[in-house]
TrEMBL record:
The chain crosses the membrane at residues 12-34, 40-59. Residues 65-77, 115-136 have a biased composition (Basic and acidic residues). It comes from Haloarcula marismortui (strain ATCC 43049 / DSM 3752 / JCM 8966 / VKM B-1809) (Halobacterium marismortui). This is SHOCT domain-containing protein. Keywords: Membrane, Transmembrane, Transmembrane helix. Residues 81-107 form the SHOCT domain. InterPro entries: SHOCT (IPR018649). Residues 62-81, 106-136 are annotated as: Disordered. The keyword Transmembrane applies.
Amino acid sequence: MSQTLSHARPKPVSAVVSAVVTAATLLIAFGLLALGVESFWLAFVVGFGVVLPAAVGVVEYNQDSDTRNTTTDRESETESALATLRQRYARGELSEVEFERRLEQLLEAPSSPAERTRETAHWTEEQHGVSRVSDQ
């Protein structure tokens, strides 16, 4: 149901695009009317029937495309980290218990960029043998 509600409310960029197209359509149509062009009404048909839906569709498609790309990037980062973890286990750098613990942490996938950065820094310090005082 939340997905239905999110599509019911226009996104800010879509609202701006639709306002600009609407203003341009009205300006052109009434400009043609003021100039005495008999078929001024075609500007309404073209503007609201073709240009407006196409413009909003392009904006929505591009925004959805950006969302899909972000998800794909996150998945490839996880796959890369998993491959590194497996290599370190295969070389004997990690015990089975440590491998399982890190695997669980990796598959939990931190939700925020700050959490991912903290995890990356922690792993880098462990790889280079840097010890630090616990954050707790």
